[in-house]
Each structure stands twice: as structure tokens, then as C-alpha cells.
Amino acid sequence: MEEVVQEVQGKEIGEVTHFFSRIGVAVIKLTKDKLNVGDTIRIKGHTTDFEQKVDSMQIDHKNINEAKKGAEIGMRVQEAVRENDTVYRL
Hints:
By secondary structure, the protein is an all-beta fold. It has a single domain (11-89), classed as Elongation Factor Tu (Ef-tu), domain 3 (Beta Barrel). The protein has strands spanning 11-20, 25-30, 35-36, 40-44, 49-53, 57-59, 62-64, 66-67, 72-76, 86-89. Strands 5-4-10-1-2-9 form a 6-stranded antiparallel beta sheet, with no helix packed on it. A hairpin with a 4-residue loop joins strand 4 and strand 5.
């Protein structure tokens, strides 16, 4: 039987390091590239797979428009995510 490998669209930019379920906020560490407000991202993991637009993001509770590689940002997510889920920019 042949195994089908689904190719994930977009560029891998980081991973989820924490999720605050009560407020629906994910902490994302940008390990490979930057992220801007207005970008569309895909979060994919063992039980996670959805896309959403980045409406806003914060560093240290301050709103920002752009986060560079190496930053850890907080942003609201539309669905629950898990630590180590991969984040892609579409």
C-alpha cells in the first residue's frame, strides 16, 4: 500500500510554545521567519489543522504590527492549539 504524504502549503515560520485556553491565546516562537499583521497562517499539529488571518499580535502585552525571527508573540487563535504545533505563513 502506498503512503500518501500531504504537502503543507506555505512557509514554516515557528511553533506554538504555550496555549491559554481560557482566553484563546497562543504563544508562538518565530524560529524561521517574520510575521506581520494581515498575514494568513496555518497551524498544524497532531490534532490541529486550521488557517486564520493574523488580526493582531502582542509582545509583552503591547500591540505590534511585525515580529521578527526569534520573537515570542501572543495572538488570539480561532481554535485550540497544542504546544509544538507548527505555524506556517501562507
